[in-house]
Amino acid sequence: MPAAGGGQSRAAGVAATAAAAGAGRGGAGVRGRGGATGAPRASGAAAARGSRPAAAAAALSRLADRFGYHSGFSAGGARGGAGRNQPRGKGVVTVRSHEIKHGVARAPHRALLRALGISDAEMDRPFVGIANSFSEVVPGHIHLRTVVDAVKAGVRSAGGVPMEFGVMGICDGIAMNHHGMNYSLPSRELVADTVESMTIAHAFDALVLVPCCDKIVPGMLMAAMRLNVPAVMVGGGAMLAGRHEGRAIDLSSVFEAVGRHQAGEIDDEALKAIECGACPTCGSCSGMFTANSMNCLAEVIGMALPGNGTIPAVYSERLRFAKDSGAKVMEVLAADLRPRDIFTEASIENALAADASLGCSTNTVLHLAAIATEAGLEFDLRRINDVAARVPHICRLAPAGEHHMEDLYHAGGVQAVMKRLIDAGLMDGSALSVAGGTVGEAVAGARVVDDDVIRPLERAYHATGGLAVLFGNLAPHGAVVKEGAVDESMLRHSGPARVFDSERDAVAAIAEGVIAAGSVVVIRGEGPKGAPGMPEMLSATSMLAGQGLDKDVALVTDGRFSGATRGAAIGHVAPEAAAGGLIGLVLEGDTISIDIPARTLTLDVPEDEIARRRAAQPPITPREGVTGYLARYVKLVSGAEKGAVLQ
User: Fold this and answer.
1) Which residues are registered as beta bridge partners of 536?
2) What is the DSSP string of 284-329?
3) Where are the alpha helices (DSSP H) in 576-639?
4) Phi and psi of 449, rounded to 5°?
5) Neighbour count for residue 343 (Cβ, 10 Å)
6) From 133, 187, 284, 562, active-site residue
7) Helix, strand, or coil here: 200?
8) H-helix or E-strand containing 500?
9) What does residue 66 show for φ and ψ, rounded to 5 degrees?
10) Which of 197, 362, 371, 564 has the fewest CB atoms within 10 Å, measured from its CB?
11) Residue 27 Cα distances to 49, 155, 481, angstroms
12) Contacts of 608 (CB under 8 A, 6+ apart)
């Protein structure tokens, strides 16, 4: 396994090689938009695609010369020279896969590879693992076989041997509001562990990671950082928005419709019409929810080609993008450009800047912290506020606004947002990208074609970014809110606590209509250790919104919220109740003060009373009935402020 050194020290050493490997790409992979209708802008991408096999071969040859060995790789993919199974001096470019296919002692391994259909010519080429999270359970993943077929075609066209393997994935929407949600966040670690295990066990030279939905994207990125093997991510693309009575709708519209139905505003027929129209295609749910947030950030940090975050799942462009990405991984391998070269302190700053401008899901905080941990980098939550203070919120997609991912795509895509921020000095264009060269070069040809979707900086929705981290006696280690989705009237709020020890109890109370305007609903015992698994809450917030209470009621929890949440929903309160956090001592009727602009979250109870309650608090014990994987997870998981990673 390659040494997992920090990216900063290697970045300078590989930058020139990365640029050389991408030579002639002429902006390949850049999805700049042009024209009022959002038609693709002309570029050198087509010519670059044709030159990729030769470019990859040339770069591999340069690496062979640099390290003094013969690679056996040619532009046509044929074996160059005899003696394929003989020792090759210091090694070969495909050094990892040679562990399983070179030398007399590896004859049994080659026998098994031949059973897979690997030919003599293929035996000498790089083996590229394709992590495919296809399933017939997740709408965002049901089409990934087609996407992966395109990726494999791209890998083969550039001289590699693609080897597909399966990775699990949970649909957060289907798992919502029942015991299945306890497994959602923990499944992120299983995804990372699976990719790690398959890559090391089968000695892949490089990886193409093909996720789409919530925990699978960060799980694969965590694995990439852990392994530090050349890798490219290819998301499955966003679902198109649905339509109902002339307006765009999405999954969160259905959750909110449940609240409207409970309030007597709509009947069964109207609810079913919304249910049937909200999710019309495959792909990740169509708003700036967690899956789309993470697919956009994968592009921003340089681990995916431009277009990853916004090309719709059902567009043929997604398949062309997948082919380009499959070919590109061979250039990344030839350049020896690794994930930790790409994901650096500058990349984290860029991700936070994009997060602020786009108004991404609060779950990105958990996932960026986890990815940084795997990359050996520090992630301080206060950094989010520092970046948000200087980067304006310029996109307002669902659930905060009326626009959806397809609108962002036609407006110029994430790359147009990046270009606008780079030009304003709000994003570092010098960070590296798998596109070849820097992220600035990758988006140089992008432009905004709809200023209503991607607003000019001087006409931003908010002068500060879309996410905020609050601190105070109730959250000394931080709590996260999607400020861009909070009504202005709720940015500052003080009210009596309505306390619930589970989401189920809170949802039942909301359904019964017993939550009064002005209240602060507290849901505790739902953190990483307490729940366990830090389940996502969309039902509670959507029901409040559906009942028209999202502008009158705040919600505070040590659990987390769906990216589809809107309103004054403050999650990730740390320490959680199960770790002795003050949220576990809140009593019914206590006053809680929220000041999002001031970044504070306070329990307005005297210190001596808090001390009295803490002294009287019984010992904290794990939730009963937790078995299997979750029982192991509870013993190892960190707090939300550290990304809920296993320690």
Assistant:
1) 560
2) B-SSS-HHHHHHHHHHHTTSB-TTTTTSBTTSHHHHHHHHHHHHHH
3) 607-616, 628-636
4) -115, 5
5) 28
6) 562
7) helix
8) strand 492-500
9) -65, -40
10) 197
11) 10, 19, 37
12) none
Q: Which residue do the tokens 């570092």 mark?
A: 428
Q: Which two tokens stand for residue 5?
A: 């050194």
Q: Is 639 exposed, middle or buried (0-12, 13-18, 19+ CB in 10 A)?
A: buried
- Domain range list for the chain: 7-240+281-459, 241-280, 468-642
Length of the chain: 647
**Residue 79, Cβ neighbours under 10 Å: how many?**
16
CATH homologous superfamily for the domain 468-642: IlvD/EDD C-terminal domain-like (3.50.30.80)
For 17-57, write each residue's pLDDT tens digit: 555 544 443 333 333 333 333 333 333 333 333 444 455 45
Task: Give φ, ψ of 164 to 5 degrees.
Answer: -80, 140
Contact 260, 356 (CB under 8 A): no
Pairing status of strand 247-249 against strand 161-166: unpaired
Q: How many CB atoms lie within 10 A of CB 613?
A: 15
Residue 89 has pLDDT above 70, yes or no: no
Nearest to 365 by CA among 383, 343, 340: 383
| CB distance 142 to 102 below 8 Å | no
- Structure letter (DSSP) for residue 623: P
Rounded-to-integer distance, Cα 334 and Cα 577, Å:
49
DSSP 461: S
Answer whether 549's CB lies under 8 Å from 521's CB: no
Instruction: With H, G, I as helix, E, B as strand and everything else as coil, classify residue 42.
Output: coil
Q: Which helix (H) or strand (E) holds 481?
A: strand 475-481
CA terminus-to-terminus distance, the chain: 21
Span 157-213, pLDDT tens digits: 999 999 999 999 999 999 988 899 999 999 999 999 999 999 999 999 999 999 999
Query: Does 361 participate in catalysis according to the annotation?
Result: no
Scored b (16 or more CB within 10 A) or e, 127-165 reads bbbbbbbbbeebbbbbbbebbbbbbbbbbbbbbbbbbbb
Binned at pLDDT 50, 70 and 90, residue 515 comes out as: very high
CA-atom Rg of the chain in angstroms: 25
224 near 194, Cβ under 8 Å?
no
Peptide bond into 392 cis (omega under 30): no
Pairing of strands 231-233, 206-210: parallel
Type of residue found at 397: L
From the CB of residue 378, how many other CB atoms can be counted at a distance below 10 Å? 10
Question: In the chain, pLDDT over 70 holds for what percent of residues?
Answer: 85
Angstrom distance (rounded) from CA 240 to CA 308: 15
Given phi > 0 = left and psi -120 to 50 = alpha, else beta, which region is 178?
beta
Contact call for residues 552 and 516 (beta carbons, < 8 A)? no
